[in-house]
Specification:
There is one protein chain. This protein has one domain. The longest helix is centred in the N-terminal third of the chain and has 34 residues, at about 115-145. It has helices at about 35-50, 60-85, 90-95, 100-110, 115-145, 155, 165-180, 190-195, 200-225, 225-255, 260-280, 280-315, 330-345, 350-365, 365-390, 405-425, 430-445, and strands at about 10-20, 25-30. It is globular and about 75 Å long. The protein has about 450 residues and is mainly α. The protein has a two-stranded antiparallel sheet. It starts with 9 loop residues before the first strand and ends in a 6-residue tail after the last helix.
């Protein structure tokens, strides 16, 4: 059983891998990563169910389906490995292992511009990963100089006394890889294309799980491994996060494609989470933990609904919809719950994380709280506007004949909607077990705090 009162790693698995270089197969879980694992497992199950379509009896059709699910399961292995790995080389292997299945899932089963989206995603991710590999090797060398033995063990490396400005440069190299994955402005330009061209189940995973890897990296490595580097870079990272909140919110207001609206909303929400990591007080870090899980749930629900809309109407253009509530009331109710979770309605899961983040920001830098709240107001504006254009008004032409949700649709969406409500009413289901880890993170941040 997981022991919530303990802040350290639990359920550790440690096996030698390449002993001469100090590389081992080491896994562990703490309160910060605890809920990312069931979130990952849940969204992959939902992605599999959402991918279930009739398959032709010919060999080519069966082979294509087998390939699709092979890459999907390989991707899940990589994501779970990232959240569990306590050896930096093992972490890098899992991090890079996800790039190959994503390349094929988007490049083979994506939309018309899938080749462009895949190459762009690949280039951005590889650029960040290459610098992270250099930083990992540098850390191993610093450990060798200090102890006489190579090691890439995360817990051992935390105890190294790195000469300045090594922590800053190492954080910058790690941070670039994490900033691309979140993504943080201005490294976000791959996201609208990748989200827009990926098949719906893959978009669910990109937004619901893979984006959390960047936030996870900022906390696990930035705050816990290079706190001095994070302290120095924090003002600049905060500025980028604020720009990301406002830029993504305004961009969402200008979109004509409903899927791109949700994609830009994801950038805005996660930029607020990055700002919470930068502030790093008790309230903001509790908000980070809560919002990572909450965002994964409601953004997955939103992208599933967008996929259902596209399947029924053959388009994602907002102007082509209207009045769908009358022919598809179940779809309307599900869309409404997911949308209200995203805008942070009290009683739903999005409210708790965003409220904690704003309280943490207000306690540290009030200007950040004001700008973060402005982003939330803009978020409510574009989400409510999108919902109104799609679901309300007269149902004309093809919109009058849109089919409502069926059993298979409800199977994938209802579990997410139930969690949106449950976590909004009982947030301590997450905050309770993560409490000791959050307190430990606050103590580490306080030792190098740059904020008043």
């Amino acid at each position: 059983m997981f022991r919530p009162a303990e802040a350290g790693m639990q359920w550790e698995e440690h096996l030698p891998w390449i002993p001469t270089l100090g590389i081992s197969y080491r896994l562990g879980v703490d309160g910060f990563s605890l809920f990312l694992l069931p979130l990952t497992a849940l969204l992959f199950v939902i992605a599999v169910l959402a991918s279930w379509k009739p398959v032709g009896s010919d060999e080519a059709s069966r082979s294509a389906v087998q390939g699709y699910f092979f890459w999907l399961l390989l991707l899940e292995t990589g994501v779970l490995g990232v959240f569990l790995a306590l050896d930096l080389v093992l972490f890098y292997v899992f991090w890079e292992a996800m790039l190959i299945p994503m390349y094929f899932l988007i490049g083979r089963w994506g939309g018309e511009r899938r080749a462009y989206a895949t190459v762009k995603f690949f280039i951005y991710t590889m650029a960040g990963s290459a610098l992270m590999l250099v930083a990992i090797l540098a850390l191993g060398y610093f450990a060798y100089q200090s102890t006489g033995a190579w090691t890439f063990d995360w817990q051992t490396l935390r105890g190294l006394n790195l000469p300045w400005p090594a922590p800053l440069w190492l954080f910058a190299m790690f941070g670039l890889a994490f900033a691309v994955k979140v993504p943080v402005f201005p490294f976000h330009t791959w996201l609208p294309d990748a989200y827009g061209e990926a098949p719906t189940p893959v978009t669910v995973l990109l937004a619901g799980v893979l984006s959390k890897m960047g936030i996870y990296g900022f906390v696990r490595f930035g705050l816990q491994l290079f706190p001095e580097g994070l302290r120095t870079a924090a003002p600049w990272l905060a500025v980028l996060a604020i720009i990301g909140i406002l830029y993504a919110s305004l961009s969402a207001l200008m979109q004509k494609d409903v899927k791109r609206v949700v994609a830009y909303s994801s950038v805005a929400h996660l930029s607020l989470v990055v700002l919470g990591v930068v502030v790093a007080n008790a309230q903001s870090l509790a908000g980070v933990v809560m919002q990572m899980v909450s965002h994964g749930i409601y953004v997955a629900a939103l992208f599933l609904i967008v996929g259902m809309l596209e399947e029924r109407r053959g388009t994602r253009l907002i102007a082509e919809f209207g009045g769908l509530w009358k022919p598809a009331p179940l779809l309307g109710v599900c869309f409404l719950i997911a949308m209200l979770g995203a805008v942070g309605l009290p009683g739903l899961n999005g409210f708790v994380g965003e409220f904690l983040l704003l309280v943490g920001l207000f306690q540290s830098v009030r200007a950040y709280a004001v700008l973060g709240a402005l982003g939330m107001i803009l978020g409510a504006w574009y989400m409510l506007w999108t919902f109104q254009r799609i679901m309300q008004g007269p149902a004309e032409g093809r919109n009058a004949d849109v089919a409502d949700m069926r059993g298979a649709d409800l199977l994938v969406i209802v579990p997410l909607l139930v969690l949106i409500i449950i976590l909004g009413v009982f947030p301590n289901l997450i905050l309770g077990p993560a409490g000791a880890t959050i307190d430990a993170l606050v103590g580490q941040a306080a030792a190098v705090a740059w904020l008043p």
